[in-house]
Specification:
This protein is an alpha+beta fold. It folds into 2 domains: about 45-115 and about 125-155, OB fold (Dihydrolipoamide Acetyltransferase, E2P) (Beta Barrel), CATH 2.40.50; about 160-300, Porin, CATH 2.40.160. The chain is about 20% helix and about 45% strand. It has 3 helices and 13 strands. The strands form 2 sheets. An 8-stranded antiparallel beta barrel has the order 6-7-8-9-10-11-12-13. A 5-stranded mixed beta barrel has the order 1-2-3-5-4. A hairpin with a 5-residue loop joins β4 and β5 (about 100-110). The radius of gyration is 27 Å and the shape is elongated. Mean pLDDT is about 80; it is low at about 1-40 and about 110-140.
């Protein structure tokens, strides 16, 4: 009895020590990061628009370089920025080298943003009409392949709707999973998206079809359009499961749709998705099978 008590006390002391170390590290990490990471410096870029979308802007500078910008959440910019327009972009560099635009001013070839007049005052100068793009203006065809690929990946990541394929393995019971996945949102919050998906699983004994209505929250560990982002999520699970040990013993792997049992449960998941569209996911099932799923997929 005394020996067991001593072991328990020792384990508690070790646990408290580890928790103290983790808490101290958590408190010191922001301070260290703030000391080592300098504040971003605004950069002003002048050039001609080669390509633009709701989330990206590619500008060819006077020196012939192509610079890719992503718009910050509160960027000041025209509703549309036409190709061939001459612009001045104020931005700051991100850790992955992408420039984040905070202000876009069209100097020619499009509508220019002007400050609002004071209350009661009249604006004597009419807003200039948009001018058509000049002949010989740069187009998407002249954008370097690496810039175009990065622009395409960021556009894919910022879409409100996307579909893809996924596959993986399930444990307890052991099954191979293949299916389709979709991405809708953001909903309610800029970091929350709806991720419905369907999977078909087959193993030596188990055959199953699952519908998962998952919602995920993007963790603020990386920029919104960064190379990768981590997320946590949960959602209901609806499964049709068939487990026939007699057929498995006889070597019969056929699917009998009259032998399926309906089950409901809850998914709890964590994952990492990359700007290229690839994602990795670990999903646990509560009151459902399999109890653990390891998935990998790609969204177009």
């Amino acid at each position: 009895m005394i020996r067991g008590t001593l072991i328990y006390v020792t384990l508690m002391q070790n646990a408290l020590t580890y928790l103290s170390i983790i808490s101290l590290a958590a408190l010191l990490t922001p301070s260290i990061g703030n000391c080592q990471t300098p504040a971003p410096t605004d950069v002003t870029t002048n050039g001609v628009v080669a390509s633009s979308s709701s989330s990206t802007l590619v500008v060819r500078t006077d020196t012939g370089q192509f610079v890719l910008f992503v718009f910050s959440r509160y960027a000041v910019k025209p509703a549309t920025v036409p190709n061939g327009a001459t612009v001045t972009v104020t931005s700051y560099p991100r850790e992955d080298g992408v420039q984040v635009a905070t202000n876009v001013r069209v100097r020619s070839g499009g509508p220019e943003i002007q400050a609002a007049p004071a209350p009661g005052a009249t604006d004597p100068v009419a807003t200039p009409k948009p001018k058509p793009a000049t002949a010989g203006a740069p187009t998407e065809d002249v954008i370097p392949d690496n810039v175009r690929a990065l622009e395409r990946d960021i556009k894919r990541q910022s879409r409100r709707f996307g579909v893809g394929v996924q596959g993986g393995v399930g444990l307890d019971p052991e099954v191979v999973l293949v299916g389709l996945t979709a991405k809708l949102g953001p909903i309610f919050n800029s970091d929350i998206t709806f991720r419905p998906n369907v999977d078909f699983g087959f193993g030596e004994v188990t055959k199953m079809f699952q519908i998962n209505l998952d919602a995920v929250y993007r963790l603020p560990l990386s920029p919104r359009a960064g190379r990768w982002s981590a997320y946590l999520g949960a959602g209901p699970n609806f499964s049709f499961v068939s487990q026939n040990y007699e057929r498995a013993a006889e070597g019969d792997n056929s699917v009998d749709f009259s032998d399926f049992t309906f089950k409901t449960g809850l998914n709890v998941l964590a994952g990492v998705e990359y700007r290229s569209g690839v994602f990795y996911e670990l999903k646990a099932g509560v009151w459902t099978i399999p109890t653990l799923r390891i998935m990998v997929g790609y969204r177009f």
